[in-house]
Each structure stands twice: as C-alpha cells, then as structure tokens.
Amino acid sequence: MEPHGSRHRRLLLLITDLEIGGTPTVVRELAIRLREASAGAHVEVACLSGMGPVGDQLLQAKIPVTALNAQGPTDLRVLPKLIRLVRHRRFDVVFSFLVHANAIAAAAKPFCGGQVRWLQSIQTTQPNPRWHWWVQRAAQYAAERIVVPSKSVAEVAVEWADVPWEKIAVIPNAIDVSQFNPLIDMPAAHAHVGKASPFPVGFVGRLDPVKRVPDLLGAVSLLGNAVHLHIFGDGEQRRVIEGRIRELNIGSNVTLHGTIDRPQTAMRQVGLLVLPSEAEGFGLVLIEAMAAGVPVVATNVPGIREVIRDGQTGMLVPVASPNALANAIRRLVGDPSLRARLVRNGLQEVRERFSWQRIIQKYVELLDV
Hints:
Blueprint: E1 10-15, H1 22-37, E2 42-47, H2 53-60, E3 65-67, H3 78-89, E4 93-97, H4 99-108, E5 117-121, H5 130-139, E6 145-148, H6 151-161, E7 168-170, H7 181-184, H8 188-191, E8 199-204, H9 213-223, E9 227-232, H10 238-248, E10 254-258, H11 263-267, E11 272-275, H12 284-291, E12 296-299, E13 315-317, H13 322-333, H14 336-353, H15 356-367
Parallel strand pairs: 1-2, 1-4, 2-3, 4-5, 5-6, 6-7, 8-9, 8-11, 9-10, 11-12, 12-13
Helix pairs in contact: 1-2, 1-15, 3-4, 4-5, 9-10, 9-13
C-alpha cells in the first residue's frame, strides 16, 4: 500500500440520496471545496437512490455523479454496483454519509481491496428509528474514522453505536458566507419588516415529525394576525400539517411554499427563522439564516445549542412548547434593536466558526487529499 499523500487522491463521497436537504447540501459543497482546495485530487459523488436535484447541481458544477438507483432502503442490488464503481474508478478514499450509505459502504469494503480508505459520517442525534443505530453500530467497524458535525452527535454515536471516542472527528458543517452577501448588503430588505403587520416568519426544512412544525403552528395561532408563517419544504408530515392548519383556523396566516432549490429563496421572504426541532445533529439552516442576516429562534436541544448562543446569536426555547415559541417570536417582532443585535452577532459567528474557508482545511487534512 502506498503511503498517504504519495499521489493524487481519487475520492468518492457516497450518500443515501441527493434530494434537497441539509446533508446533501453539505456533500455538494464539500465535493466542490475539496476539488478547489486540493490540487490534483479527483472528487466524485454517488447516491444510493436515483438522481435528485442536488445531483443536478453537482453536475452543473462539473462534479461527476453516479446514481445507483436503489428502489428502497432494502434494495441490496446497489451493493455490487458500488463495488464495481469503486474498483472500476480506482478510488483511494470512500467517504459515506448517513446510515444507509454507511451500511452499504461497510458491506462493500471486503470486496474493494486493501488500499481503499473508508470513512463515515453521522449527522443526527435523532433516537428513532432505533434500528438505524443498530445498523450504524455494525457499520462503524468498517470505518477508519467517523466524522460528526457536533459534540452532541459524537456523544450519541458513542452511546448508541459504540463508536470509540478516538475514532471520531468533530468537523462542523459549513456554508459559503459570500453566497448570502446580497441579503446582508440589502438592509432595506429587512428594515421595513415589523412596521406593517403581519411579520413574515419562516420555517425551512423537510416536513418530518422530528421538526415539530405543529408546535410552530400552535405558536402562530397564539400570535393571531401579528405574524404570517412561510413554510419552505416538503415531506411525510405535509398532510398532518395541512390538517393542523385547518384545525387551528390559521389558513390565512400560513403559506406552504413546497420545496425550494436554494435557501436564499426563503431568506429573502422572511424576517425571522424558527427551527422547533426535538433533535438536530447541527441545524445547517440556522447558519444559513445567520449568514443571510435573518435572526433565529430555535429549540434548546443538543446540536442546536452548539450552534446558537442564547440571547447572543439567536434565541433558544424549550422543545414542545408553542407558548415559549410564541413568546420568543413576539419579543423579536416587537424589538428591532434585539433583532439587529442578533443579526450582527450571528453574522460574525458564522464567519468565525462556520465558513468553508475555515472548515475545508480540516477535511483536506483528514482525507489526506
């Protein structure tokens, strides 16, 4: 086996799907940044499912993408496809993200030769479904290192998947702050917010039970016509959310926009972002909002509280409390100086802790590319 760094690396990033979402966005940006930061490294992306919107974005950025076209999480026909891909494309490093991709990568390892380095990423603190953690416990033995975005994810990886501490690398998720500069440079875009009712409040993310969007709907019902909630995203809980909107009789105060291609689309339309999740590994949308000059309210749960400093870069409230959400929103809507302070501090925080310019070198060193 050649020593690491002795020649140009060929790197495959493997993920479950390339639909719009936090981890696919991280994989897209990581592929592009690694290509730029590591002269001579060849970077490709593969997904277990069919090609999604993020796959199209990668192709536009001239990153090769392979869709393995699994017909579901139990479709093991992707295993020989992955083995052929790794062997045919002569990858030196396979870096997988999320439990399904981690499991398939672990199963492929014995058939791909001893010169390939295998790394995995865990991105969640969500306890259920529990079998995900049982699968991850078995898969982690095949990985040289496990990358997590926060200490909170590291702790659950140790507790629920038996990952040794010494195998874990904590590397925060990141964004390109410059992509959000147009929002920052247009203070007038948010200066009028709050002068006229209703105040535009936003949620951006998949409509999944873990996000607890109904709690936010409860808060909106308590706030009456003071706010209008814009929901950007789609998912399994859409019908539940639509039903809850009807039950609360707040249809005139909520707009369901569906999936968007870029977070900037949402950030331009809101004056406040709310993330009411019961569990997050990191909360990428929080730093996107902070970079865009949009103040945030989020729940005080592991992962989120490593990103948001309560009262400094955002406001944290207890999980599962519509009343607490409503109070925090009401306070920010009525206090422009507080919003301005959170925006100012949040932008500084993103630039210092969560910009790709600061984070990419950690990956370059880890992957030896």
